Amino acid sequence: MNRIINFRSPLIIFGILAITFGFIIMIARSPVFRLNPDNLAIGITADLLLTVPLLYFFLIRKTGIPKTTVIPVLILGLIIGTNILPSENQQYLDLFKKWAIPVIELSVLSFVIYKVSGVVRQYKLTRTQSFDFFTTLKEVCYKMLPGKVVMPVVTEIAVFYYGFLHWKKIQLKENEFSYHKESGTVALLGVTIFMIGIETAVFHLLLTKWSNTVAWVLTFLSLYSAIQIFGFLRSMYKRPISVENGRLYLRYGIMNEAVVSLKEIDSVEISSKDIEKNNECRKLSVLGAMESHNVIIRLNKESTLVGLYGIKRPFKVLALYVDDKYKFEDKINKALSRNT
């Protein structure tokens, strides 16, 4: 019985892609290339940066594979070209790196912002739940980007957004609860940023006596770390814990979060006692034992705590700090009574 090849199958698509790249690499390594390197280098560069991405686009355009995956294919072609072509034949690759890559990065960022803006407008029309930028950004990026790169991209955008763009003070609704006012985390992270600044200045002065390049690289990394921590800190102000639509949205800035159905909650206990250290017991705070808790939530089934860059950890018991713990407990208990 004859079988029809399904060219929309991801396995077939990536197989064609691998064969095409392999054929190009064979040409670059063949004796033919050495006979006419200049002309063939131009052709190989055009194939890697134009022909292969276009071929891939036409193969995926009627599939569920995100169209934005064309960009990783293009970047892969750029990497392959850099490794297989002699340095003297990479002038067009160098031009692409210098001029096209920044344009592509800016275009992707603009496209993400455009998509997020569309979702925000849709939210304002429906208002089925409280708007949360971080959640919206993830939803948009999962539709646009390959799964493995979503969380790193989302985290970087969110750090900049919460750290430098979202300065409007939020007013907590009846179903929302803060967790940063009395926990001490803000002070601890603030001191950390201050210490990074002091140490960076001192080490920069010392390292310049040995290597100016190393000094500036380490200074950049330190400042980047401080910016990240600042964004994490600011996100705690903007992402309150909330109870809505039969779910409990547990958030610790953009550093940790979990969504739990109210039906999965066994009990909510106001307590500061230590919890057991095992795979079923977690703390919502990323600081662990360095931050106290005043509420312990116990579930009747396992749930998932999602941390930075999408790292997932299971839990059935979660300890957290809530500024208004009694109101929080009352809200959960009333919600539980309505859902039973």
What descriptors fit this protein?
340 residues, alpha+beta, eight-stranded mixed sheet, 14% strand, globular
In short, what is this structure?
The chain is α+β, with helices and mostly antiparallel strands. The protein is 57% helix and 14% strand.
List the helices and strands and how they pair.
Blueprint: H1 10-29, H2 31-35, H3 37-60, H4 70-84, H5 91-126, H6 133-144, H7 147-165, E1 176-177, H8 185-207, H9 212-238, E2 241-244, E3 247-252, E4 256-261, E5 265-270, E6 281-283, E7 295-307, E8 312-320, H10 325-338
Parallel strand pairs: 6-8
Antiparallel strand pairs: 1-2, 2-3, 3-4, 4-7, 5-7, 7-8
Uncertain runs: none
Radius of gyration: 26 Å
Describe the main β-sheet briefly.
8 strands, mixed
Distance between the termini: 56 Å
How many helix segments? 10
Beta-strand portion reads 5-15%
What structural class results from the helix and strand content?
Answer: alpha+beta
Total strands: the figure is 8
Q: Outline, from the CA principal axes?
A: globular
How do the SSEs run, as a string of H and E? HHHHHHHEHHEEEEEEEH
What number is the mean pLDDT?
84
- The residue fraction in helices comes out at 55-70%
